[in-house]
Every structure is written in structure tokens, then in C-alpha cells.
Amino acid sequence: MENSGWDKTKLNTVNRYRNRGKYDYQTVNTIIDETPVLHVSFSAPQEEGGNRFPVILPMVGCTSNYPDPAVPNKSESRVVYLHGYVSSRIIRLAQIADQEDTDGVDGMGASANSIKGIPICVAATQLDGIVLALTPNHHSANYRSAVVFGHAHVVTEEAERLHALELMTNSFVPSRWENTRYPNSTELKSTGILRVEIESASAKIRAGTTGEDRKDLKDEEMKQRVWAGVVPAYLQYGKPEPAPTNVVEKVPEYIEQWVGDENKKNYENACEAAK
Fold first, then answer.
1. Measured at the alpha carbon of residue 104, what is the angle toward residues 88 and 197, in degrees to the nearest 5?
2. Measured distance CA(6)–CA(23) in Å, rounded
């Protein structure tokens, strides 16, 4: 049987509440694709003046099984595409690493045959609810999170760049790419695309109601004065507001349909997670 997830290693194993850990491709890919903003962390070389801190950036991204995008199967290993400005630090570092790989040695001093690109970590988190227990120590949150470890390369092939741009555009609103003006050459040149080859990943999910201390459950006086339960939390999109330059009279149906569908799905997911 073909492997449908990542092997558990020291790098990706969930240690706290291990039963919440998930390692299958389907779960990790779905969380990444449904999270509007990803957080990408990497270590930058110490520049003049000394940069002692790791770097973390909010970025737009999504998964893909390119070069076979016609098969939308999230239950297999994929890559993550990230969108950035062509002269941003993370793009420049990836370009340097790609060049050093081509020359035979990467930025970490390894041969080109062993490891390529810059090592990065991609994190995605969605909040589904605030869990209010009888005592602050048992308060929690319902959430879905995923962490991906891999190496990032700059995408240079035009067909793959366009695939990634269309995919990320439509990850905001489906069908948006074909309902906009095609990017011109200047816009395409100023856009950087990173392709993250995933080496390891895992997800962690918390759902359900409160978890209480046994002694608290026997304290009837305290239970009478302290409310306990879950406040569902979800992303809700509002009514589309036209730009001052907009001349289209009606909001397109595909946008209104997406807003309604997303709000309904997010609400139902949060309420289901609270049970």
C-alpha cells in the first residue's frame, strides 16, 4: 500500500497531546490551503551589524501537485508555493542558494547532490473556538494547525510560475484569475514564486468541549457561579464593498456565492468543533 502521509520523526512528531497529531497528506494539505495567511520562518545570514534573530514572514501560499495539476488529489505528497516580491530577502536568499547548488555547493556547505534550496518552515493555523473551563489552567482553544519543513527554490520556468500565480489567486476567491486582467510583463517580472519541497510535516487539531478537573466537577457551589463552555470562532467575510474606481454595477455572482459558501462552511466547522 502506498504511503499516504509523512513518517513520524524527531522533527515533526507532536509531543504534547500526541493523540491530536496528524501526519496524513490530506489533513496537512487541506489546512494549508484553507488558511489565508501562512507564516514562513527561516534563518538569514548575519548581516553587517549582526542579525541574531530568526525571521518570520506572513505570506500567501497554497499546495499543488504540479506538474499534474489536473488531478486535484490532496491525499498525496505536494509542494507548497509561496508568493513574494522579487527583491525580498527570502527570494534573494533562495536565488543565492539555487546558484550555489548549481555551482556544486549549497549555502550550508553541503554538496549539490545532498540538499538544495534554503531550509524553511511553513506554519498554518485556524482558530475554531475559545474553550472556557471552570479554572484558567484548563482554558484552551479549538484549532487546526499544520507545520511543514522543507527547502525553498525560486521558480523560474514560466509555465510553473503562471500555474502557481493562478492557483494562489484562486485560493483567495475561486475563478478570480479568469475574471481579471492578465498580468503584464512588468508585473510578472516583479513577482517572485518559491516552491517548497516538503521533507516532513505534521498537523495538530484540538476539537471538543472543556476538559475539567475531577475535583472541580464535584464542587457544586463553584459550578453554580462559573460558566463553562466553548465560544465558536470563525472567519466571516462581509458584504463586498466596491472600489471608488469600480464601474461594474453588480457584484459578480461567483464572488457572492463564494462569500456565502465560505461563511456557512466556517460557521458550521466551528460549531461542530465545539461539541
1. 50
2. 6
What pLDDT, in 10s, does the model give residues 146-191? 999 999 999 999 999 999 999 999 999 999 999 999 999 999 999 9
- pLDDT, average across residues 75-85: 91
In angstroms, the Cα distances linking 133 to 18, 127, 223, 228 are: 21, 17, 10, 5
Report whether 59 contacts 83 (CB < 8 A).
yes
In this prediction, residues 93-116 reach a mean pLDDT of 63
Peptide bond into 244 cis (omega under 30): no
Cell 549539490 found at: 112
- pLDDT tens digits, 231-241: 999 999 999 99
Nearest Cα to Cα of residue 177 among 190, 194, 162: 162
3-state secondary structure of 129: strand
- Name the phi and psi angles at 72, rounded to 5: -80, 60
User: Which residue in this structure is represented by grid cell 507548497?
Assistant: 80
- Tell me, letter by letter, the H, E, C secondary structure of 64-119: ECCCCCCCCCCCCCCEEEEEEECCCHHHHHHHHHHHHHHHCECCCCCECCCCCCEE
Q: Which three cell numbers stand for residue 112?
A: 549539490
